[in-house]
Design a protein that fits this description.
Structural class: alpha/beta
Bound molecules: nicotinamide-adenine-dinucleotide
Order of helices and strands: HEHEHHEEHEHEHEEEEEHHHEEEH
Number of strands: 14
Strand order of the largest sheet: 3-2-1-4-5-6
Helix content: 40-55%
Strand content: 15-25%
Shape: globular
Largest sheet: 6 strands, parallel
Length: 326
């Protein structure tokens, strides 16, 4: 192909992408809205099991195209997977959300069956898709998706740490009175109120450690507020949050379709990294066109390593529940 045509192809290739979002509820619709507004793909399919819901939300979003100036074509589908055919990236948000007082883990019985069936249906029509799992309990759903599909591990990405890290930056920005965009801060480990590990020792405000601006008590409070970030919102709203979860899902889609090689904390399959095997857990990874492309080893001190091992133990016992489900 002549050089100028090849350059044109490269310039437009991201645009000619197809993305599917399964689950047209609060998180799925918000994620789709973010994807469309940023024109991350040419074609976007929203699918839900509830009759008419995805079609209705897709039409509603398309009616913002003239106002917002995007050309992404959004269509809805009631459980017809043929319409998702040839998707490059699929975001799975289907399942029940938690209500006040519930943990993410309480959702396993219902959501395991949903996530497994959805993955099978998706791969029937999009065998090469990269799958982003959002449904909770996310670490266990990511593990289940990997076990159930057997596709290469780099194509299954759990979204939890991306959201938790953004919430961590929010908490830090409130304490420091600074822009969240000037902060580097990651949350590793499981995506649960007690399993996530906000790495405050590693967090920086531009290049200065945040620990030089916050005393021990303030640091502890930021970590604690981050860990209950989701539960706090569930209590206030009456159901689980969607703006930041939807935006976090779209940020991962963007990193894949634009081959950004951006560093995010995502739940991925570990094979000895961070001292763990046969588990999917949140660690810093590079996200690009091939899904998660490499795991970045952060240097953890003894306390952080112990927290990571404890987090893995809790997620592993949740994964064991899968064996008891029919
Ligand atoms: N990983 C994260 O960081 C994170 C953050 C927020 C929410 N969540 C989880 O995301 C999930 C969705 O949350 P929500 O607030 O959007 O819930 P929601 O109830 O608003 O939407 C869920 C949608 O899934 C659909 N659905 C159910 N079974 C389906 C199936 N078999 N096929 C297709 N669609 C199906 C429902 O009809 C519903 O529209 C929940 O499990 C929630 O806990 C995860």
């Amino acid at each position: 192909m002549p050089e100028h045509l090849f350059r044109l192809y490269l310039a437009t290739k991201n645009y000619y992408m197809k993305v599917t979002v399964v689950g047209a509820g609060a998180v799925g619709a918000t994620c789709a809205d973010n994807i469309a507004r940023r024109e991350l793909c040419h074609e976007l399919v929203l699918l839900d099991i509830k009759e008419g819901l995805a079609e209705g939300k897709a039409q509603d979003m398309m009616q913002t195209a003239a106002l917002l100036g995007f050309d992404t074509r959004i269509t809805g589908s009631t459980n017809d997977y043929e319409k998702t055919s040839g998707s490059d990236v699929v975001v799975i948000t289907s399942g029940i959300p938690r209500k006040p007082g519930m943990t993410r883990e309480d959702l396993i019985g219902t959501n395991a069956g949903i996530v497994k069936t959805v993955c099978e249906n998706i791969l029937r029509y999009s065998p090469d898709a990269i799958i982003i799992i959002i449904s909770n309990p996310m670490d266990t759903m990511t593990y289940l998706a990997l076990q159930a599909t057997g596709i290469p591990k780099n194509r299954i990405i759990g979204m939890g740490g991306t959201l938790d890290s953004s919430r961590f930056k929010y908490q830090l920005s409130q304490r420091l009175g600074c822009s969240a965009a000037d902060l580097n801060a990651v949350v590793i480990g499981g995506h649960g109120d007690t399993t996530m590990i906000p790495l405050i020792r590693h967090a920086t405000w531009n290049s200065s450690p945040v620990t030089s601006f916050l005393d021990g008590e303030q640091q502890k409070q930021v970590v604690a507020d981050t860990m209950v970030g989701g539960a706090t919102l569930t209590k206030l709203i009456g159901t689980s949050a969607w703006y930041a979860p939807g935006a976090a899902g779209a940020a991962l889609v963007e990193a894949i379709v634009r081959d950004e090689k951006k560093l995010f904390t995502c739940c991925v399959s570990l094979n000895g990294e961070y001292g763990q095997k046969d588990i999917c857990l949140g660690v810093p990874v590079v996200i690009g066109r091939n899904g998660w492309e490499k795991i970045i080893p952060f240097e953890l001190n003894a306390e952080e390593q112990a927290l990571f091992a404890k987090s893995a133990e809790a997620v592993r016992s949740m994964n064991d529940v899968l064996k008891t489900l029919a």
